[in-house]
């Protein structure tokens, strides 16, 4: 039913035992937060700390470093009366691994993290990366709530969703390029990449219309639309009507590492849809040294309009086309935008800072609930 990776158990006889933490993922957690989880696992190696990742069977974990992390798959039965048995099996395997603390990686993971905490009588922490879910924490096992941005932290405090618990600001960490990487190859046409889930037709249709305007203005660019969803077929038909299939490439939804490879080769990145969660794809584009245009700046505090990114109204093709032309015509400003983004990430989104702060919290919470490790 479950599969444990072959990483050996930590039987070190050194002066200090490693704290054993389980990172708990929901069905879409790793797809959304893959790069962040990867950097966290690597960063916790230096603490030292033993990490298990509990994830739903069938999720893509190819980009998670295992070892050093141990991977523990759990089943998600469709029939409600079978779910308690699945939770008990997962809890037993975590007990055998010596787990002493749980960390729900996002609010979608709250239900299973809470049930595991009850089954194992363990404390847990919860990261909140979105304003979408109505997070209400009432059980005594939750010791801290970790907001991924200042707007999310403010929301948690104002709604009293985590009343009586520490609400810490811990921003996601990503590795960043040393400098802006846009427009460095003058022999190649600039590559403009738009990415996201192709669920809503209108925002992506506006992107295609903006691309068509650049083509009509005889701007020599290579256009890419990265993603998948039920709107893809309709968008392909629109691209054909606009006569731009020769200049536009549709790319299926990518793993986080594959997307990073695409972003490193891009000159401009577009996030077309407004979102109520922290956009890790936008963060990754900024980390790659690429100027960003995004339709939303409410949740992600690394988006500072006009300084670290340009913003536009979702679905506004004319506005988007105008701002794209501005970046193409003023490449000094485009590089400055990318450099400003890198500077902000260096300050607020360091993987080492994220891992170090989380390690402090893990030890603090574990120290309150069990004898000190020796």
Question: How would you sum up this structure, described in words?
Answer:
- With 374 residues, the chain is of the alpha/beta class.
- Helices cover 39% and strands 16% of the residues.
- The chain contains 11 helices and 13 strands.
- It has helices at residues 29-44, 83-96, 110-120, 150-159, 201-216, 232-241, 256-264, 280-287, 317-329, 331-348, 351-369; strands at 19-24, 49-56, 70-74, 101-104, 124-128, 142-147, 166-169, 191-195, 222-226, 248-251, 268-271, 292-294, 310-311.
- Strands 3-2-1-4-5-6-7 form a 7-stranded parallel β-sheet, sandwiched between helices.
- The protein is elongated.
- The chain starts with 18 loop residues before the first strand and ends in a 5-residue tail after the last helix.
- Mean pLDDT is 88; it is low at 1-16.
